[in-house]
Amino acid sequence: MDVTEAIADILVEEGVEYVFGFPSNPLFDTGVLAEKGIQKIIVRQERTGAHMADALSRVTSGNAVGVFACQHGPGTENSFGGVAQAYGESVPLVAFPAGYDQSNNDTDPKFSSLVNYQQISKSCEQLTDADAVAETVRRAFSAARNGRPRPAVVEVPKDVFYHEVEPFDYTPGITSRPGADPAAVSEAVDRLLDAERPVIYAGQGVHYAEGWDALRELAELTEAPVATSLNGKSAFPEDHRLSLGAGSKSEPGQLAHFLDECDLLFGVGTSFTDTAYGITVPTDNTIVHSTLDATDVNKDVEADHAVLGDAKLVLEAMVDEVETRLDGPRGRADDVAAEIAEVKEAWLDEWRPKLESDEAPINPYRVIDELTNVVDASEAIITHDAGNARDFVAPFWESPEPLGYIGWGKTTQLGYGLGLAMGAKLAHPEKLCINVWGDGAIGMTGLDFETAVRYDLPILSILLNNYEMAGYDTPFGGDFATVAEGLGGYGEQVTDPNEVADAIERGIRKTEAGTPVMLEFITCHETELSRPDLD
């Protein structure tokens, strides 16, 4: 067999069901994937394929790793943003970009994945020895899965794909979950129980560790409210009475209120990276930081105490420790829940004029409000694009189930959300998978709506179209509902605010019948965001 077939055999052993990307790459061109029972998903733009692989990794429990492949040269150039996005969001992904033939690999100008992908990958190798294929690919999967998850890249020169390989047996590498130092756990619990107004802050690491139950148990035992990062959103049920919602560029009023008054912030599964798309970390309280990656500690936020380890193992150890300390309920849960409800209601009262606005063009907050009222969030996975789409959705959408929301936390290219929604739908066909985007984002990757049609991925795409980009003086145009129809899906343009809910209901029925849907809402130029300031 040759290297192409060898890689396909390895992917089968690694449990891979899909490979995303764009030809020409021998993994796609030779038919070997179909022979091995792996489905290839061909997109119209390379980075959308990386985004779909990204989503598959994020919303699939266990050790799932999305796999991406692309053409040498232009394909690897176009793919760079998608792999960089996965790196920024700490997403496990294995990429197989083709490289130029070894005979002209170093001829200038030639884009080299080996050289250029090193800063956006956890590991980056070029396969030059066909007989090293098993160990090279095993290292990539192990790198992606172990420790802080991030992309691993194996560049395969075009000619090497066809080199013969001696038969071999392949066993996937071991996935490790480092536990916490018992002494560090004990001190963290000391500090948490001594605090008068603690807040727990959960990041994406809780999702990867599947530490949802332990997080909820710790919150209920300590009677502490829980906030999340945007990547961690849905790690704690947002319909729970102790939920504060997610921190982002725009966020719920109750979150800012409790951060302002907390005397201890316990971050778990989070990097505490200083970003405009996260919480403002208070500087006058105690910080306890639990993370898998030791380089996160004291990186941007000075910690008073740190607990290193897998988020689930840390949380479970803390639950066990708390149970040995407490004799029963602490007696403050009702007061904390009542305070959250009171502040939340006051915040929502401020926003109801926009959430329930009858103005035309439609206020985008009206669209988000109707979306939250119509959709059963427990049966949905929602994501958004950068800018206003994110800022309108994040504070008001409540996800009650783990992995019901795909967020991001640092920097994001426009057009990300479409691939995420399609990847989520592929992983969870039983869920209503939604992406919310705007004029700028649809201009980047909009034609990949046809990918949803071609692969029978009935997503619900919500377009907020105000004919400009995010308040910038950049006028745009286009009738995207008609475009969606032309691409084989269902498109509908809505201009009347009183038709928003009915249109969403129609769209959901179309997705249930198997048709991808684009609902284009003509919206006003809304600029106000929910960003309550800390005192």
Labels describing this entry:
single chain, 535 residues, alpha/beta, Rossmann fold, 3 domains, 6-stranded parallel beta sheet, 20 helices, 17% strand, globular
The CATH fourth-level homologous superfamily of the largest domain: Thiamin diphosphate (ThDP)-binding fold, Pyr/PP domains
Strand order of the largest sheet: 2-1-3-4-6-5
Which percent bin holds the helix content? Answer: 25-40%
Count of folded domains:
3
- Main sheet makeup: 6 strands, parallel
Low-confidence stretches: none
CATH class of the largest domain reads Alpha Beta
Beta-strand content estimate: 15-25%
Structural class by SSE content: alpha/beta
Instruction: Give the termini distance in whole angstroms.
Output: 66 Å
| Overall pLDDT confidence | 95
CATH architecture of the largest domain: 3-Layer(aba) Sandwich
Q: Report the radius of gyration as a whole number of Å.
A: 24 Å
Named CATH topology of the largest domain: Rossmann fold
Shape: globular
Protein name: Thiamine pyrophosphate-requiring protein
Domain Thiamine pyrophosphate enzyme N-terminal TPP-binding: 1-105
Family: Belongs to the TPP enzyme family.
Domain Thiamine pyrophosphate enzyme TPP-binding: 385-520
